[in-house]
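Much of our argument rests on the idea that a fold can be written as discrete symbols. This step matters because it turns folding into a mapping between discrete strings. The record that follows shows the chain in one-letter code together with its fold in token form.
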Amino acid sequence: MKKLWMVVSLVVMMVLAACGSSEEEADASAEGGEKETVTIKHELGTTEVEKNPENVVVFDFGALDTLDTLGVEVAGVAKSSTLPDYLSKYEEDSYENIGSLKEPDFEKINSMEPGLIIISGRQSGAYEDLSDIAPTVYAGVDNENYMESFEKNTRALAKIFDKTEEADEKITEVKDSIAQVKEDMPEDKAGLVTLTTGGKVSAYGPGSRFGLIHDVFGVPAADQEIEASTHGMSVTFEYIAETNPDYLFIIDRDKVVSGESQAKKLYDNELVDQTEAKQVYLDPAVWYLSGGGLRSTEKMAEEISAGMSK
């Protein structure tokens, strides 16, 4: 009988110990355990990312714009490249410099132990190398499907950082602004989009890098034959005079690359003067550097609207 009691006691103790161990494991899981992840499909692949990652590294200024608008803190940005004025706070020492838009500082990035790296077209060639350091997501916009990719990228970032509701509200605001621009756009007016750099001029049409002026904002193209490309179609001022657009949109690349603005002096000539075009100078930092962001797309709408009302 005594032996039976000892066996029962031993069994009870083992059960209690097992229960205690299970409770400790459950508590540990609840307190720290494995973090929730999300799967992000993007142009360069599929990436699994922890929700609300720490030490976020951002190359794409459009994505930086969106995260800033949504109140998401980041750790490192490409400070070796010119930041748009409205994102100048990221020049502060509290943010790590991860290189330039074309030359990532792999050593610095690796030392930061980032939870997420966000890139776009200029860094796409380094995708595999960056992915070896941390989960890497491509957030560049598709020029031929600007709004579709803009919304997709915004919602993907919002999903990672639990900002879906805020993102939906901001996207609605942007779409409302775009709808207003399209509503105000005169049907009998047409525009020509140009970029100047190093004394040379390129034109951009629908489906191109700056084609959203036509495709999204509804400005009819003064020339429908411009080939869609990243670098535009090289043109002369004779071409601009012959095309004679109602609106001549001008993006001064030199202003953001070298800090020296040359466009106004360059466009001040007899050939341009003989056209009836309203010259609309667009903020190159927004159009050339940070396209695809929540605020940059809103700023674009504001600039097109202001240009048409001059």
